[in-house]
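User: What would this chain look like folded?
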Amino acid sequence: MCKIVVINRGEKEIVTPKEFKEHFGFLPVKSSLYALEENEGYSEKELNECLCTADIVKTLRENNIQFKSQWGNVYVGELDLIEVD
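Assistant: Here's the prediction, encoded as structure tokens.
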């Protein structure tokens, strides 16, 4: 199952590293499972693929962005009505 970043309770869904950068202004950190080198960037092809290679939680924590997560989805923005187990 691919990761999705949900903005403001579904106002927008981010599903690629390119969309992530367009919204947040920076690329997500590549997961250590997929990066061959520390701080490895994304290829042009990877920018348009799913967020499965990204470590979204680490990226958001490093940038002090509040979030909630559940079942692979990460919620940011209006968190007051988001309920997670």
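The first strand starts at residue 4 and ends at 7. If you want, I can go into more detail on any region.
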